[in-house]
Design a protein that fits this description.
By secondary structure, this protein is mainly beta. The protein has one domain: Beta Barrel (Porin). Helix content is 9%, strand content 61%. It has one helix and nine strands; from the N terminus they run αβββββββββ. The protein has an eight-stranded antiparallel beta barrel. Strand 7 and strand 8 form a beta hairpin.
Length: 198
């Protein structure tokens, strides 16, 4: 609950700082893309289990631009990579389904380039391939940064983005039984966006 309150407090602060909103600054953004994905931390204190093998991710979302510099965004990402033991592949693939919301701060320029950063929170559902009834959902924090380029005289954009998630995978079963170390996982991706002014 405290993380949820923190997210709402951050959103409220961002809106208060945004001040009066010009009509041309309001827009809805759609975005989708894909890329690579892996963990940077071990799954246990012994360091014998991890998700560090590079896998892949695909996802997208929607952003509501409330001000020239402020956007609220909602994201969904699917990610898959392999569970390793003692740095050896086990053949056990694990899916993660991330869904989160964040406050994004961007800086649009006259060239069409727009760097941005964002932070927020949500949840991740962990699914071990080949199992049923063992899925676990955990709360997660998220942070990221990126660069979007909007094609002149159009709403079409091309972006690159790095995004990270922080969560603790406790009470898992099957091959992941006993893992409990805080996870820091990252994705790097590219994709397309489209902006609808309103």
């Amino acid at each position: 609950m405290s993380s949820t309150r923190s997210i709402f407090a951050t959103v409220a602060t961002a809106l208060a700082l945004a001040g009066p909103v010009a009509a041309q600054d309001r827009a809805v953004h759609l975005f989708a893309g894909g890329g690579g994905y892996n963990a940077l931390t071990n799954l246990n204190d012994a360091g014998s289990a991890d998700f560090k093998k590079v896998g892949y991710t695909a996802g997208g979302g929607v952003g509501v631009q409330l001000h020239r510099f402020v956007t609220l965004r909602g994201d969904f990402h699917f990610a898959r990579n392999q569970f390793r033991v003692n740095q050896q592949e086990t053949g056990e693939d694990v899916n993660r389904f991330f869904y989160d919301a964040a406050v994004q701060l961007q800086y649009p320029t006259s060239s069409g380039l727009e760097p941005y950063v964002f932070a927020g929170g949500g949840a991740v559902t962990i699914h071990q391939i080949g199992t049923s009834g063992q899925d676990k959902t955990k709360g997660t924090g998220t942070f990221g940064l990126g660069l979007n380029y909007t094609v002149p005289a159009s709403g079409v954009g091309i972006f690159i983005e790095g995004k990270s998630w922080l969560y603790k995978p406790t009470n898992l079963t099957g091959a992941l039984a006993g893992v409990d170390k805080l996870q820091y996982e990252v994705a790097w991706a590219g994709g397309l966006s489209y902006r609808f002014p309103f």
